[in-house]
Write a structure and sequence with these properties.
Length: 312
């Protein structure tokens, strides 16, 4: 029996994180160097549908997954959408090269790959819209009140200009550009930072609305720069966005150290990316300087770096 396989890329937020939760735009891009692969192998005559995800120590019949498990939520979501009662005998294997809790979209990528592979196994592949909507439901388990940007960029595997509640806008990158992503090695507690920003906003709405609006303007300028073929203009916009995120209290000394090391080594701009207080930062670089900047970031404490070209 043939297996049903689907892959989904990682992602990184270029600009607009946190403000996007409050209705401002944000830009996210796929990171194809890391990915999740979901493989469903039918087991005719077998008794159970088994889920195996070695990276997170899961190897169990699907109906033994705890009720709060994102994998279970995704599987129940496919069944509900397709109107099927149970899963035929088979094995779902999830393989991932995306670091967990690092702001690289691993949760969303697992959901998207799983939803596609399992719906194909059931003979009714979900549309992108259905995959995106179900992956968003699962993101709520991971993140509490997500904006939906992660599931969107991972589902469409293209750069997206994202505004909460608006139709998906993928866009053209007129001139490719290169990012070096630096991992602090600290988990990014996105649920916590999103919650803290909300508490701050509730305490001092005017101050936070000002910061969100400033980040929104930077994101709009970044979008214009990318579609006009002037990615070098992103550098100062990224630097300014990092300052606002520091002001909001979501940076971390380790993120700041990597950002500074990247700038000193010649990056055109650098900022934290995603929820913050850990996870990743990104640096915009000239391709011929990528290795040197990546080395400088490692010397400043990055446990891993990924150089990625943004195009499409
Ligand atoms: O930490 P990440 O990369 O999953 O991104 C979180 C982005 C936030 O804007 C902070 C939250 C959200 O849901 O958009």
């Amino acid at each position: 029996m043939p297996a049903f396989t689907a892959t989904a890329p990682g992602k990184i937020i270029l600009i607009g994180e946190h403000a996007v939760v409050y209705g401002q735009p944000a830009i996210a891009v796929p990171v194809n160097q890391v990915q999740v692969r979901a493989i469903v192998t039918p087991k005719p005559g077998g008794k159970e549908f088994r889920v195996t995800a070695p990276a997170i120590g899961v190897d169990t019949p699907w109906d033994h997954l705890p009720p709060e498990s994102p994998l279970r939520a995704a599987l129940e979501g496919v069944c509900r959408t397709l109107g099927v009662r149970g899963l035929p005998a088979g094995q779902l294997k999830i393989q991932s090269t995306i670091p967990v809790a690092a702001g690289l979209g691993s949760g969303a990528a697992v959901s998207v790959a799983l939803l596609r592979a399992v719906s194909a196994f059931l003979g009714a592949p979900l549309t992108d819209e259905q995959v995106n909507a179900l992956a968003f439901e699962v993101e709520k388990i991971h993140h509490g009140t997500p904006s939906g940007i992660d599931n969107t960029v991972v589902t469409y595997a293209q750069p997206v200009y994202f505004v909460k509640g608006e139709p998906v806008q993928t866009f053209r990158v007129a001139a490719p550009f290169t990012l070096v992503i630096g991992d602090t090695g600290l988990p990014a507690p996105t649920k916590e930072t999103v919650g803290d920003v909300r508490t701050g906003w509730q305490r001092d709405e005017r101050r936070y609305e000002r910061m969100f609006a400033a980040l929104g303007s930077l994101t709009r300028a970044a979008h214009q720069a990318i579609v006009a073929g002037h990615p070098e203009r992103l550098g100062p916009l990224m630097n300014e966005a990092h300052d606002w995120l520091c002001e909001m209290g979501v940076s971390h000394p380790k993120l700041d150290a990597l950002v500074q090391a990247a700038r000193e080594a010649g990056a055109l701009g650098a900022k934290l990316s995603g929820g913050g207080r850990g996870g990743n930062m990104i640096a915009l670089v000239n391709p011929d300087q990528a290795d040197a900047i990546s080395l400088a970031m490692r010397k400043a404490g990055a446990v891993n770096t990924i150089t990625t070209r943004v195009q499409g």
